[in-house]
Give the backbone structure.
Amino acid sequence: MFRRERPIPLRGSAAPLCNNLSVLQVPSRNLTHFGVVHGPSAQLLSAAPEGVPLAQRQLHAKEGAGVSPPLITQVHWCVLPFRVLLVLTSHRGIQMYESDGSVMVYWHALDSGDVSPVQAVFARGIASIGRFICVGTWSGRVLVFDIPAKGPNIVLSEELAGHQTSVTDIATEPAQGQDCVADVVTADNSGLLCVWRSGPKFKLVTQIPGFGVPCPSVQLWHGTVAAGYGDGQVRLYEASTGTLHVQISAHARAICALDLAPEVGKLLSAAEDTFVHIWKLSRSPESGHTEVEHCHGECVPDTQVCGARFCDPSGSSFAVTGYDLAEILRFSSV
Amino acid sequence: MSLRTLPLLFLNLGGEMLYILDQRLRAQNIPADKARKVLNDIISTMFNRKFMEELFKPQELYSKKALRTVYDRLAHASIMRLNQASMDKLYDLMTMAFKYQVLLCPRPKDVLLVTFNHLDAIKGFIQDSPAILQQVEETFQQLTDRYGGLSDGEFQLIRQTLLIFFQDLHIRVSIFLKDKVQNSNGRFVLPVSGPVPWGTEVPGLIRIFTDKGKEAKKVEFKHGGHYVTAPKEGSFELYGDRVLKLGTNMYSMNRPVETHMSGASKNLASRTQEIIAPNPLAKEELNFLARLMGGMEIKKPSGPEPGFRLNLFTTDEEEEQAALTRPEELSYEVINIQATQDLQRNKELARIMGEFEVTEQPKHSASKGDDLLAMMDGF
């Protein structure tokens, strides 16, 4: 059972984008940071455990040549071995800040090159693995940035080709043991998933085809890919082989966000059907297969959810954003 | 985000505008031949080939202000006049109706069915004008050509772009409140029951597979909603059962059009950002207007056809009252072309504005610049 906690007010409503909530847990300081995209601006705020907002900051997409103020597509904290960076993607490029958003340490302008005039140019999909930050783009290219332990000497180290349509989301997990085969998964608008092994040069491990249905959100847990689709399905695959293990008819509308509480194997799925579901993933001792159990379903009435994240490592609390909603809703288990 | 959104936005908003005007023309007892002329003139202007060409060019969506200026001109494409308050109300109703339709579309692709519903109804308005009917059918073909082959991912982007356009709009509409599709706080009701979208499975099942791909186990879980399978898919053909009711005419003689202005958006921060747009933005919007309206062939009234004023409210006093009490943050403030300089710089827009004749007021023989400014203020 979950109960609603006090919501945290936002300066601007959440934009109807997928994965529109980033959470950075800072248990040592008893703080939680939240990041939400409004449109041409994104809001960062930090809150104490009871949800009392403490500090807030607004970031804007860097202007460039163009007609209207550029829209931000995503904001996400990247936890690296020696530092935490906040990454902001927009229709102009990629901005990286110190974790509190106070200083921009890096700017990468997107190369629109010989784009067909019908194509919108943007970056979307942010995740970190080891010392790298991966960011997806409208063309399907995934940019890999090499991040130094400190300072602004960030370098674009590689451009991964694997997708033919716009990247939607990227998920990573720390290498599971010496013989780990895959630690990065990228997803796109056609539902295609690419599984990679990170390193000085990334290696494509396998591709899991989509069926034309977009995959807006993806997670990676213990070698299992969890993918949420535009038709409301959640599917779990073996990352190294692409074998389908579980298929869940989870939602009645497009899924907009997935999150993981990796220590306990809990998966959160949120969709435009106003529902948030929590699932327990486990490995069956006999078959070695991934299994799923439904734990909890929460309806957020009349709200087209656009972002959802666990707020603590045990997955006992989560936060939700919705289109047109100017507050972050919070739930915690009783 | 998507550069393919404008035609869908324009045609659906235009469709809603026609539904509302049709209802008000009948409610105000405007003679049938005059009413028919108004609708014919507006529809013929909307579907003009040159205008459609401009519309279908890949481009970003402009602000609500810029778009409103286009509809203002469209609404005045005939012998009918609307006061500012009525025009404001008309635009409010149009935007809230289409926002509702986009939000409730089961699949992102269904926005095309909503558009077809509007076009089907528009064809009904001009049944006795084969020339205009031809224009509408050509547009239908254009839509099919441009959107028929788009992927689900592209439609998801279009849907997001439309919702971003409508973000923070919470005007309460009487007919929505009565039908319980809108809450008293201005938010739309999102039902958790009924048919799932075509291609989606009813939620509630977990299927576990073996390594060989065989289904090993099936487990049900309680989803929380009350969904059933979709009966059939709507038709994307020129003629066909769309199945979807969104985009069909919800107004009738017994269901008048009303709005409550007190449901204003609380997010003033986001609103002010839009109103104090920097100059370069205003210039781009002027160019957009020039391009788009340049394609509009407004028929000049042939002969002494007396115009009339349409009122979106039930009485003139109500209309006046509405104009006085409209909340600041909801004022549409038509694009403020501040200096004659701006107009001169944009010769194209000046030329178009010059073509616009106000049949009621006599033409002044003052300088051309002043004339144009005066006409802009009259908008």
